[in-house]
Amino acid sequence: MAATAARTQSWAQEKLHQLSLHARVTLLAAVAVGLAVAFVSVAAYLTVRQQMYRNLDESLIQRSTAAAKSGVITEPDIMRQLPPEALGLIDIRMGLLAADGSTLVGPRSATPPIGPAELAVASSPSNGDASIRTAGSPNNQHYRVIAIPLGGDQALVVAQSLEPIDHTLHNLGIVLWSVGLLGVIGAALAGNAVAASGLRPLARLTGAAEHVARTEDLNPIPVTGSDEVSRLAQAFNAMLAALARSQDRQRRLVGDAGHELRTPLTSVRTNLDLLAQADKRGGLRPEDRKQLLDDVRAQMDELTTLIGDLTELARDTPQVRNAELIELANVVEDAVIKVRRRAPGLEWDVQLTPFPVWGDERLLGRAVTNLLDNAAKYSVPEGAIQRSDGQPVGRVTVRLLDGVLTVTDSGPGIAEADLPHVFERFYRSSEARSRPGSGLGLAIVKHAAEQHGGMIYARNAPGAGAQFTLWLPHAATQTR
Question: Where is the Histidine kinase domain (predicted)?
Answer without folding.
Answer: 256-476
